[in-house]
Structures
1.
Amino acid sequence: MFQVKTTAGAPKSVLYDELLAQVTGLLADERDWLANTANVAALINQGLPGLNWAGFYFLRGGELVLGPFQGKVACVRIAVGRGVCGTAAQRRETVLVPDVEKFPGHIACDHASRSEIVLPLVKEGQLLGVLDLDSPHLATFDETDAAGLQHIVNVLLERTDFTAATSPGGQR
Ligand code: SME
């Protein structure tokens, strides 16, 4: 049984070092995109304090479609350019939102969410989707989160075969 362990109360940089080591172990023998993104969503949700949603959207048929996540039921399709997720996808840049009410076009899947961070998943120049984390507290995420999550995304991208992740699935 794989146990997610992070040190309660440790500085964020320590939590991210611990998480990175665990992600690396978790993905060592598996390249399936669905399995790996499901486990990374679970690992982040268990390993980081103060989250109410952690998961993935994948670019399928030209829009972002909900992937593996932990949290409340979420909106299924997000147009590129819309909301925080669509903005990160369009810009191919991490978007940090300290107060979602001040982000024009923020899509409220869970009304408890107060702050958010979204990282694009880009492999070999191709946009695959995004990693989205939400918190019920204001200003939960900062540059330490952006850097720590980017390291996790880098390991995920390197160790996973995403060929099937962006094939259009069933339409609405
Ligand atoms: N808030 C996101 C939508 C996804 S949910 O938070 C899970 C956005 O504005 O793109």
2.
Amino acid sequence: MDKHYYIVTYGCQMNVHESEKIAGILRGLGYEETKEEEKADIIVFNTCCIRENAENHAYGNIGALKKLKRARPELLIAVGGCMTQQEGAADRLRKKFPFVDIVFGTHNLEDLGRLIGLKSKKKKVVEIVEGKNSVDGEDNDISYRTSYPNAWVNIMYGCNNFCTYCIVPYVRGRERSRRPENILAEVNALLDSGYKEITLLGQNVNSYGNDAGGAFTFPSLLRDICKRKEKFRLRFMTSNPKDFGEDLIRAVAENEQICNLIHLPVQAGSDRILRLMNRKYTAAEYLKKVELLHKYIPDCQLTSDLMVGFPTETEEDFSETLRLVKEAGFSTAFTFVYSPRSGTKAAAMEGQIPDEVKKERIMRLVELVNAQTREKSAAYAGKTVEILCEDYDEKKGLYLGRDEYGRMGYFTSEADRVGEFVKLKIDETSGVSLFGTIVKP
Ligand code: SAH
Ligand code: SF4
Ligand code: F3S
């Protein structure tokens, strides 16, 4: 009888990509994907702990499996990802959800196959390790990808920055860069098999190569990848403003394949808050980099991550965030309410902000960001943009894809366009979405 897997993913693109690796491992063991929980022989939760609500989500959904597990004791339930890697998390999980069979961490995802094998001999398998990754091993691409024509490629693991609010350095360990030749081999294989968009992933791609004594750098990696001359798009995330430098900007400007959309998370507009966050730049330094970016790449667009309610944030601090959002002219931004993470410096700071104040600030921030997004979208009306078609939306009956700047464009087509670059004349805009008609060449 066929065996089936069901994977539930929380968190960032790093996790989405790692779920592709989990899928690859499970397929190697003879499992096939199912979209229905009830039909699964193994359910894997790939968790996130960046904010409390991400954890609550996972907890709720794991808890809801108790019944299914009671009805079908042979069902395997595995929990992995960032949540399990936190101090004491494995014990907490064991107590709260005794029916979970396998717990693994962010450093031993590649061992999942072995852990499943172990489980057949043991009642329960819990393995959390520190500081190891595929980067230290053979570095084969084990991913089973379902995101054609887009592909994610990890260039580094971990983070050294210890922004005071952030749990990532604790659950992902120190920075480890993959060798450029391994990354190039993976990217080239993806392009050879027809992928049209590659997104390079790292917590701070700017520090790529720092752990290898500077033998290679992020700009040099970008230039190497762009030696491929066929048409494709190259994106990356995330770039920390503190070391977002001129050479990187030049590499983006020089290479047509690299999208002129830069995601540059600023977090806050107040220098005092930025200092408390340990972000290592001021608002003025940030805006200088934005200016430099526009100097080299006049048609570039910027997106960001913003946070409200960091400990001690005053109304004046918050208004500086609003001011910076306008000055930097973000085309859109992800907005977050600060969530204390146990073990981080900020969680122990005095002056935690009450929930009502956080709520009120996030609403005002979202309103401003949405207005800016709508305004930028409205400017698309009547223009012609190039879309990389990604999918067909059954409900809308429309094909969809994104332009270089990440705007979603919808259109009708008789032929299947997935994986093709198409030119759209934009008839209508709404929020971040564009609606257009194909322009015949
Ligand atoms: N490495 C990336 C960020 C990864 S986390 C960078 O440095 O830019 C993605 C975003 O989550 C962060 O940019 C931040 O805005 C938000 N975030 C991180 N920790 C948070 C916390 N404790 N509470 C609320 N938002 C948080
Ligand atoms: Fe977290 Fe800062 Fe590292 Fe980004 S750079 S992952 S925000 S510690
Ligand atoms: Fe990503 Fe969440 Fe981990 S944002 S790195 S999955 S804590």
3.
Amino acid sequence: MRYAAITGWGMHVPERVLTNNDLEEMVATSDDWIVSRTGIRERRLAAPHETATSMAVAAAKQACDRAGIAPQAIELIVVGTFTADQQMPSIACEVHRELGAARAAAFDVNAACTSFMYALIAATQFVRTGMYSTVLVVGVDINSRFIDYTDRGTCVLFGDGAGAVVLQASEEPAGLLSSVLGADGSAGHVLTLGDPEQLAHLNGVSEMPRPYMKMNGSEVFRFAVRIMGDAAAEAIEQAGLTYQDIDALVPHQANMRIIDAAARRIALPREKVWVNVERYGNTSSASVPICLVEAEREGFIRDGMNVVVVAFGGGLTWASGVLRWGPGSVVRERIA
Ligand code: ACO
């Protein structure tokens, strides 16, 4: 059997901090409301010179360094995002250029906030089938460029960031032991960015040149509370494990109440759940890889642990898996 071990990881968040108190000056909200409904205290916003590509490249370089590989060793780059700086070329191709990853194929995946998980699962299949042995997976979103900062229902929730991992073929169980993907296109209207009606409206409004996110918060909330727990449970079952075998939960960071519900569903105590939503808000596709980087740094996840990763997002979409953390035994010779 071939597995796709995670052998490198990296993250980038912008320096600028937008606190709940800052938001009180911008819309009719309060620190109390935001903290009690979401758990978020602050989020990071990209500076004018930063782009989704620049954040992705920063995270990707760290991941390659950590894995000990030169960019020329990468055979495939998959970037999960729904806030690309432009429609073409893809961020994956921009990362390809910036890294000088001359041998790599490159493409983007869009599954809204689930994009990184979709990208990770897709990349894992390329490794497991033997087509590639070294793959770079990035999750990045520059949400602040697509938020209406007069809409209190969305602007308090989102932040910017990027996270990346390197996958390498391993002969021992490592990386994803199970993979769950799902979608419900019939409910896509509850969370949109640039739907045709909005674009038609914006075409006549010069001061709002970009499309922005629109959300039915309570509908998304109900969906997320159900699906995060169900998807986590399915991933554990598919891996042939029980709840007792799970060492940690690393969930998409959208809302503390959604995270708590997911943990309850798989009977995991709070101390085994990685949470950073209070510092970054919802960084969408970057949320899970940023959590992995910080959780590893703090010793919260260690080699040999079974870590449930799970996310949901617009589409609607969801994805989950059980990750066996650690390098396994990497089979590929390294091209340094
Ligand atoms: N400050 C103060 N009041 C607010 C704010 C705010 N920032 N936002 C909404 N309210 C008000 C509403 O207007 C409403 O007022 P009303 O009763 O007078 O109409 C009231 O608070 C309650 O609104 P609800 O939507 O019922 O509040 P809820 O408890 O559901 O919390 C929230 C809202 C935090 C948005 C929640 O629904 C949620 O987290 N939903 C999921 C959102 C999410 O995770 N989105 C990411 C999707 S991932 C992706 O792919 C992009």
4.
Amino acid sequence: MAINSTGLQPGQGAGEENNRSQLAPTVAAALSAVSLRCVECSALYPALEAGQPRYRCDCGGVLDVEMSPRLPAAWADDTLPAGAGWRQLFDERAATSPIWSIAMDRVLLDYSGVWRYRELILPAPDASIVSRPEGNTSLYPVGIENCSASRSGHRQIGLYAGLERFYIKHEGENPTGSFKDRGMTVGVTMARMLGSTAVACASTGNTSASLASYAAQAGMRGIVFLPAGNVAGGKLAQSLAYGAETIQIAGDFDDAMHLVEQVCEELGIYLLNSLNPFRIEGQKAIGFEILQQLDWQAPDWLVLPAGNLGNTSAIGKAFRQAYELSLISHMPRFASIQAEGANPFYRSFKRGFATRESVQAETVATAIKIGNPVSFTRARRVIEESDGIVESVSDDEILAAKAVIDRAGIGCEPASAATLAGIRKLVAQGVIRRDEHVVGVLTGNLLKDSKTGIPQEASGVVIQPTIEAVRRILS
Ligand code: F0G
């Protein structure tokens, strides 16, 4: 199969010849069990085709990975209840502590919060996997009832939301500070399996930071397209520091997204936006990890911020798969929260999804400043199948919620706070009941954006180094 992965100068990163030789029979065998299904017209394609990788159906629709997960024989036991073998397999792997001083790749894979679930993610040969490892992020109990008195700071979040049993899943604790690492480890692994030497994405900042890190680890050329002036400082710094070629375009994210699709097709660079269905497969692990942390008890609601809608699609798919495999006994309802100035999904939802809306996006939460989301149809399916809801919150509501999360000592970037703002609104409306069991996802780390919504004046107090001066300040 000829994958044209352009661009590497001789001697730079991994060479073409080296990579071609990686299209090993093990790769072909692994991917032979994987298909791609169009979410619009249901056309089916093999995961491996001659020529360039496929990201869209011939009809223009986005694609969804299909495969039939097989429980390894050692865990298959017909006498156990359905789902028990899977739970046992994942629980055993989660209990595996890595011994960092010894090169034990499989142990490291078991430790990854993505590859621990590898039968449900991607059948990749171990040697192809590019992993930091990622995942293993905290699930903080913050509800009025499930947060102990000794953590009264965290409990403020539950009080603000008005929820008794409430958990915050902090994906900002991933290696590059956002949930993007979960999809990126799979995307870059796929790039390596296909022998690509260059990878690219358009980004509001977090995907690019993650791509830059994983491309550097894999010795690939990383190229990122960013909307000029609309990427938070911490994210831009990451892309530059990890060594990605950082191209700022005079346009917004939607323009950058359109451009990168053309660039990747023309130059044969592997595309790593969530348009790439293998990214979505990795992000499913957020859902599996939440379930495992809750001892495989599904919550009533799963709430998350929504921009390009990859995450809604991915976590929704994870819960559906977990249900189909009897890992859990019911599906949670999904609530995707958009910023008021960037809410095309919300607008469509309000019209019963009769039309697909797009907007000229504007919000302080730059991560979700997206007017024409790529994964619209995938996410719509999740909302419809889960009897879910889409809500919209103002920038003021986002910043107020961010202040609560920050002051609780947890912290997040602005887009993440849309989750809490949305929950508060839905609880006030009576859509989410106070006693329902809710998991809210925070998507990015506080340090990503050190300006928006952070009281800058608090850092301005300078005093003489004397005890008198301190007394005056603190009295
Ligand atoms: N939260 C954060 C912190 C994000 O970076 C993003 C998306 C989202 C939420 C929305 O997730 O697109 O799956 O609905 N950031 C992308 C990027 C667009 O380029 O980093 P989504």
